[in-house]
Amino acid sequence: MPIVVVESDAGTRDVGNILDRLLEDPAVKSLVAALAATVTQPLLAELMNTLIGLIPKVLKKNRDDVLFAHNHSGFDFDDYGIAPGSSVQDFRVGNDRVRCVLRVRKN
Asked: What is the pTM (predicted TM-score) of this model?
């Protein structure tokens, strides 16, 4: 039985989509062009235009992050075969972001 904890970056991707749509708006495009025209250094203006175009693309490609993964096999019925009063042993596993306890029946 795999146990996986995943951090969803859907919100970041949504922001990337919103920024992409915003930057495609004709009014915003003309404002960015006007701003770039005021920059006296052409290289700086080109850098600014490139970064403005790249930010939404980077955000939209942000993938979900696996924070923790662990595999375990056992009996998945009858409370894993642990009868009341049975002896069990806990195994604590995790990392700096996620912690869990795996309880195993002892014979």
From this structure: 0.58
